[in-house]
């Protein structure tokens, strides 16, 4: 596994690759050998395009590691359209586990590939910006980037 870190307009990010797939995008350091691969660089380029409002989806092979439940949650979260949000309860209903809103929140918290798996688009049922690995102010910023660029 290889990783490389970059400074972005939202702060430092770490991108990791294993077997030609992105396994992690994180705001905290990832334990891996430091090396900028072509895929890591392409991922960084696409993230920069996203942050500038030039990209609404990603063309990157990903391989998030997690439990079967977490995989279901991340797949459901990945289906949230750019510029839209869903509640934790919405995601729980979508995966067929309507009483698992808290478990959905925990799976979201463990999302290893932030932004590409857009866990920032999951909010509280009362539209509150609760829970995000990068903090709620970063969650708000990512949602604002999408909202502004959706109108263009």
Tell me what you see in this structure.
The chain is of the alpha/beta class and 152 residues long. The chain has helices at 38-51, 68-78, 88-94, 101-109, 136-150, and strands at residues 2-8, 11-18, 21-26, 33-34, 86-87, 122-123. The strands form 2 sheets. It has a 4-stranded mixed sheet with strand order 3-2-1-4, covered by helices on one side. Strands 5-6 form a two-stranded parallel sheet. A hairpin with a 2-residue loop joins β2 and β3 (21-26). The longest helix has 15 residues, at 136-150. The chain is globular. The termini are far apart.
Which key phrases capture this entry?
152 residues; alpha/beta; 37% helix
Question: What's this, in brief?
Answer:
With 152 residues, the chain is of the alpha/beta class.
- Provide the helix percentage: 25-40%
The residue ranges in which pLDDT falls below 50 over 5 or more consecutive positions are none
Please state how the strands of the largest beta sheet are arranged side by side.
3-2-1-4
How much beta, percentage-wise?
15-25%
Element-level helix/strand string: EEEEHHEHHEH
Question: How is this fold's topology laid out?
Answer:
Blueprint: E1 2-8, E2 11-18, E3 21-26, E4 33-34, H1 38-51, H2 68-78, E5 86-87, H3 88-94, H4 101-109, E6 122-123, H5 136-150
Parallel strand pairs: 1-4, 5-6
Antiparallel strand pairs: 1-2, 2-3
Helix pairs in contact: 3-4
């Amino acid at each position: 596994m290889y990783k490389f870190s970059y400074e972005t307009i939202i702060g430092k990010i770490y991108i990791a690759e294993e077997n030609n797939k992105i396994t992690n995008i994180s705001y905290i350091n990832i334990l891996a050998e430091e090396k900028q691969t072509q895929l890591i660089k392409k991922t960084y380029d696409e993230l920069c395009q996203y942050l500038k409002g030039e990209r609404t989806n990603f063309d990157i092979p990903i391989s998030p590691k997690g439990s079967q439940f977490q995989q279901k949650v991340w797949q459901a979260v990945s289906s949230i359209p750019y510029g839209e949000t869903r509640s934790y309860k919405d995601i729980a209903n979508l995966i067929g586990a309507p009483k698992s809103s808290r478990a959905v929140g925990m799976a979201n918290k463990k999302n290893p590939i932030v932004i590409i798996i857009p866990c920032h688009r999951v909010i509280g049922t009362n539209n509150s910006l609760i829970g995000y690995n990068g903090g709620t102010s970063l969650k708000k910023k990512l949602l604002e980037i999408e909202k502004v660029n959706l109108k263009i």
